[in-house]
Design brief:
By secondary structure, this protein is α+β, with helices and mostly antiparallel strands. The chain is built from 18 helices and 19 strands. The strands form six sheets. The chain has a six-stranded mixed sheet. Strands 9-10-11-13-12 form a five-stranded antiparallel sheet, with no helix packed on it.
Length: 540
């Protein structure tokens, strides 16, 4: 009979395979090999979906058993045969009872990860009595005799095994146990990049990694970053420190830190990554080859799970944000999100340009024009000859980071409209049109600042539609000027965007509605729009 834990283990393995496969797809390879990997990716995604449906089914069956157990208990019947797994009971022994607030300082964080009155690890009876004979003091201090339920069985395995080099694996596994059986449940994703080629590896083909070895993300934020090294903790710490940046207040609010760890061989160390980006060691350095430190390590993972749950509850709820060091792949486009920038890649760039009727020179003109405009993305890090790879992949690094617009009032809509008009005014002055002014191409970078993105859609104007040209999404005949797309077409798109945003509002000023009508009737340029009373008069 398949158990929930076996299904969850299968999901983790499939997700791990998908991560590795998607990293391979980012590399250079023959098209035939790429097509084979895409086919394999489709197969794994279907398998993942099947396993998730199975997990959902088993969870429902578990809930039904729990209900039956309660009914039997009320009627005085014995429910032992119905519900054998007592993992929900056993896992309570290894968690912090009543964790209500997050630590505010490194000293308090160390005490939360290594409390003086620590929990105990439930293990199988056989394991408990064997250890009791061999090391009675350690056993009595850190272990509790349990049955063969899922949690005790997994922890028994962890205590038997040499966990050196498997730090990320056991983090992931114990988090799955906590999510399955503890009262504190939340949705998260684990990413493992430990197998990326790295300088100093045994392989002759190496490349510098741009992401940490281990990530845990939830609600569009990264809450755990880990580095595993074969050499030393100092090397792992240096690598991690070089990658992190100050935590964005827009993403993390008043959260004082996120968690990190470094590992090398049998050595393990928890870290705090402060809101200023400073990395500090917290708690003792553990030697996982010793029984006491291995017990402390496993217990601290459970405590870290509870701390991250509290972190998730404390950060602002922001739509459309992307956790740092994660990747978003759609077709030939890849976005890699870093703490202070986004790396955007488009494979088969020549084909992209032919399809979109644009070119590298036009796109770079747009970025150049926007260098002094806070309403347009800024290029960073690229050399002049570094935009197109030998295999034809276009890559730029842009900043700042943002999230989906939060439009809850006329004032927020007005601010967004003003910023988009500023961006369009700059592009139009440079002889360019954006051609894809939609809400998905607007991001909010602060409370008072929005940004028009996706400059890879620009073209020189007037842009005359060639025969057979496929319209952009949401194009319409009304926005065109004859057979051409002009700056007034951009303004029409903005008017339509704003009309969609204000239709749900019960109270909207007449000046706002009049401004939208002007855009949709193509009565004003971007420069004229910036002088409109609705945008220029703060009282309205």
């Amino acid at each position: 009979m398949t158990t929930i834990l076996e299904v969850q283990d299968g999901i983790l393995k499939v997700q791990g395979e998908l991560e590795e496969l998607r990293k391979c797809l980012q590399e250079e390879m023959p098209e035939a090999e790429r097509a084979h990997l895409w086919k394999r990716e489709d197969h794994l995604m279907k398998k993942e979906e099947q396993l998730m449906r199975k997990e959902e089914q088993l969870m429902r069956e578990k809930e039904q058993l729990r209900e039956k157990e309660l009914l039997l208990m009320q009627s005085g019947q014995n429910s032992t045969a119905l519900l054998q797994d007592r993992s929900e009971e056993w896992i309570k022994h290894m968690l912090i009872p009543g964790l209500t607030t997050l630590p505010q300082h490194d000293y308090d964080l160390a005490n939360a990860l290594f409390p003086e009155k620590h929990g105990k690890l439930p293990v199988t009876r056989r394991m408990y009595h064997e250890r009791l004979m061999q090391k009675p003091n350690v056993t009595k201090s850190f272990l509790i005799e349990a049955d063969d339920s899922a949690v005790p069985t997994l922890l028994t395995t962890a205590l038997w095994m040499d966990v050196s080099g498997l730090v990320g694996f056991f983090l992931r596994y114990i988090f799955v146990l906590c999510r399955s059986y503890s009262p504190s449940k939340f949705t998260y994703q684990f990413f493992s990049y430990c197998n990326e080629r790295r300088a100093g590896s045994c392989s002759s083909s190496t490349k510098e990694r741009s992401r940490p070895d281990t990530l845990l993300t939830a609600s569009g934020c990264t809450f755990l970053i880990g580095e595993d090294k074969l050499s030393s903790l100092s090397d792992a710490e240096a690598d991690l420190t070089a990658r992190v940046r100050p935590l964005s207040t827009m993403f993390y609010g008043e959260l004082q830190f996120i968690l990190g760890y470094i590992a090398a061989g049998s050595a393990f160390q928890w870290l705090s990554i402060g809101k200023s980006g400073v990395v500090r060691r917290v708690g003792p350095t553990l030697d996982l080859s010793t029984d006491v430190d291995r017990c402390q390590y496993l217990l601290s993972i459970g405590y870290a799970y509870q701390l991250i749950k509290k972190m998730i509850d404390s950060v602002p709820q922001v739509p459309g944000r992307h956790a740092m060091f994660t990747v978003d792949i759609v077709g030939d486009r890849t976005l890699c999100f870093f703490p202070d920038r986004v790396r955007k890649s488009i494979k088969n760039f020549d084909s992209f340009c032919r399809e979109m009727m644009t070119g590298l020179d036009v796109i770079l003109r747009a970025y150049k024009a926007g260098e002094r405009c806070s309403s347009l993305p800024q290029l960073m890090g690229n050399k002049s000859d570094d935009y197109i790879s030998r295999t034809g992949t276009y890559t730029v690094q842009i900043s700042p980071l943002g999230h989906a617009p939060i439009l809850r009032s006329e004032q927020s809509i007005r601010t967004m409209a003003k910023n988009v008009c500023e961006a369009l005014s700059v592009l139009h002055e440079a002889g360019l049109v954006h051609r894809d002014v939609r809400l998905p191409n607007v991001v909010q970078v602060s409370q008072e600042q929005f940004m028009l993105i996706d400059l890879e859609t620009v073209a020189a104007y007037p842009f005359r539609l060639p025969e057979g040209f496929q319209y952009f999404r949401e194009w319409s005949i009304e926005m065109l000027e004859g057979n051409s797309y002009t700056p007034m077409s951009d303004m029409y798109q903005l008017g339509r965007l704003l009309k969609k945003d204000v239709h749900w509002m019960t109270e909207i000023s007449e000046s706002a509605l009049q401004f939208i009508r002007k855009l949709r009737s193509k009565e004003c340029t971007a420069a004229m729009a910036l002088s409109d009373p609705w945008l220029s008069d703060p009282v309205l």
